[in-house]
Amino acid sequence: MNQQITDAPAVMRMAASARRPLLFSVGGIALVVLLAILPLLAIDIPGVLPGPTYTPGTLQLLAYAMLIAALALSYRMMFGLAGLLSFGHALFFAAGAYGLGMTLDAFAPVEWSSELIFAASIGVTLVFGIVLAATVGALALRVTGISFAMVTLAFAQAGSVLIRRNPGSATGGDEGLSLDIANVPEGLVGVVNTRNLYWMALAVLVFVYLVVLWVERSRAGHVAEAARENELRVRVIGIRPYSVKLLIFIVASALAAVAGMGYLLLQSGASPRVATADFTLTLLVIVVLGGVGYRWGAIVGGIVYTLLDQRLTALAGSDLIAGLPAVLRVPLSEPLFILGTLFILVVLFLPGGIAGLPQRIRTGREQHPVEAEEGADA
Amino acid sequence: MSTVVLLLITGLGLGALYFLVASGLSLIYGLMGVLNFAHGSFLTISAFLGWEVGRRVSDGTWWGLALSAFIGIAVGAIVAAATEYLLIRRLYERHIEQALVTVGLALASVALFEGIWGTDPIYTAKPAWLSQTTELLGAKIPNDRFLLIACALLVLGGIVLFLQRTRYGLIIRAGVENRAMVTALGIDVRRSFTIVFAIGGAAAGLGGVLASVYYGYVSAHLGSVLLIFAFIVTVIGGLGSLTGAAIASVLVAVLQQFANFYLGGTGDLVVVIALAAVLLVRPRGLMGKVA
After folding, report:
1. Could you tell me the residue ranges of all domains in chain A?
2. Greater confidence, B247 or B95?
3. Would you call A344 an interface residue with chain B, using a CB distance cutoff of 8 Å?
4. B289 to chain A nearest CA, in Å?
């Protein structure tokens, strides 16, 4: 009898806690479906998008935004979940982009069909990304904190220098690498097929999201989170945080490489800019702008940042800005100036980022992003 | 032999530049735990303003250069102190956020410099003597290297004197050692935060003017290029150690010069490998305190 009395509220609690994630996943699926049918619709949002949603220009921009969001999501897993402040995440994105580009260039057994070569190239690049991540991660994780940031920065810098130096004319140096379309499926080449590339970018984003979700819900994710909060306690309990952190590092880097491959196909090439430390800093800005404490913060941040960057560049060239006096015209015609200032303001006044806004409005008090995350989970 | 001497002295000159940036970074990190990404911007703004004033008064003369250097030091100190006072102080004790604010400042300021002075490098005039060479042990050494080395030595001496002989220097040294204890003794460490930022900014400002002499141009990215190497120097030397920064800047710059000459332009890669090696063998750097 007693059993039933204690069980009833527990069951109700379970049902309530099951309902919210269900609501979230239904909303998420609806959003993905909406995004998937966007190329078939003609939605025009003046000022935000360059044209109606079925035009290649808009689809290209949206696809790019989604790939950046996927990359930011993988960076958030490392920085937000495991607390690893890496300055070398761009290295793995570049490894994906350049790796696939170079493999498609060099690796073409004649007897294989082009689909097989394409699939094999993706596989080779992924393995390359994982091996690279395991090497860099195993070395860098021997130190913590700022030193960890510096080692990753050093490796990324080395990669960036290597790409710019253009060994054996494999990377194209400062010019960038252009995609060799001989073995790329026809549906993914050319402006006519931007729609397919858009769907590919959406698939990459969904895939990265699901992997991140899976890792965060797994035991490794919980250990990583615990180690972020108090590494000593985790060690006392008898778990080695090193291997878990390395796992997170490798998974996040492999996901970055996947996003990098998508980037290569979307842009039909790779520019050395994506390997620089500045690119990693941009990711950091995106993640913090969106809200470190929230998974979808990285997605919101990535999309908002890319759209802002693109639209502010368009705004900079407009007559409206050209007519202003120099004091206003010069700062306003530099998108990065506006984004940098916005970022400083968010760090100073909005610790939860964009994704933390609803929570802030609801509770009406200042909250640290980590507390907010705990509040959302409970 | 003459090549070795030339590489060595050029390395020392470049090391002098690295030191001017790294000394401030190291002091700031040591005392406050802030990794200052905006340090390169302090350098760039000083280089630009120093050049703007110098060329208006008397371009390409010693007076013009001296005035540029003075303006550079003043601008660097003021901008750095203002950064600390307006941005860093609001985020007291939140190190990640403090670093993030400086990242934002660096991004925004570089964009602003590009907007004002354009993206292309602007070539600068310098006194005739600095463009000539002096023969030393059979090597023809550009004279500007000597100026750089002399300035860096002066700055090193000045900072050491300040740290060893003044009351604020005492507080800063104690703060680097154990900040909680200094605070517990009733001393307001925060005032010395602004001072440390101002000193670091002044050194970076002088570095900016000297960098425009060394490279022969000013550009919006002058600071960002030097900043990465200054970070590497700071970490190799040991965060918070001025002596470490001095030794490491010379080591890194000389190594870079030699690798560039003998190993086919691989200087940047060798430096990065050196950083990884030092961190793995001795994570706290050459002269860093135990973390």
Report:
1. 1-40, 56-275, 280-378
2. B247
3. yes
4. 13
